[in-house]
Amino acid sequence: MTHWRGAAPSLKYPSMTDHLYSSDVLRLAADIPRLGALDAPDARVRKVARLCGSELELDLRCEDDRIADLALRVKACALGQAAAAVLARHALGATAAEIRAGRDGLKAMLKDGAAPPQGRFAELAALEGARDYPARHQSVLLAFEAALDAIEATSRPQTLTA
Fold first, then answer.
1. Which of 85, 87, 88, 132 has CA 20 to 30 A from 32's CA?
2. CA 148/CA 95 separation, integer angstroms
3. Cβ neighbours around 109 below 10 Å, total
4. What parts of the chain have a pLDDT lower than 50?
5. Any residues with CB less than 8 A from the CB of 1 and at least 6 apart, and which?
6. How far, in Å, CA of 59 to CA of 97, rounded?
7. Which architecture, in CATH terms, is 30-153?
8. How far apart are CA 66 and CA 95, in angstroms?
9. Residue 34, number of CB atoms within 10 A of its CB
């Protein structure tokens, strides 16, 4: 009788890491544009995914109700980094409605089994494997949540204190 330690050498069983951390996710996570800080942002937001500890800080500058510039500082798993990369690649020129639609499409893909977002943020399809891992959803959504909070902060009237 033959006893195997693990799978037979000729067989490959997909693991969680194969499914979750695809080559597309790793490619995005390894190439996050717009890292750093803006000198004079209109808004600066820090978000933390409490379940996993991922952190993201986002600086934002808006002009004519569109994102004119942004910068990120990301301390997250590859999934959170990949989502941040997609946001950073495609957010310039976007309106709050477009960022919200990207976030809502991503959330629907993760939580409701919807098709991946289309259009400006179609690269979020790379994160479809995270659907089966609810503990990862907050990290994946972090960049879009931060962007929406920053946009909201830029639209609030500023009060001066003496």
1. 132
2. 10
3. 20
4. 1-4, 7-16, 159-162
5. none
6. 18
7. Alpha-Beta Complex (3.90)
8. 5
9. 18
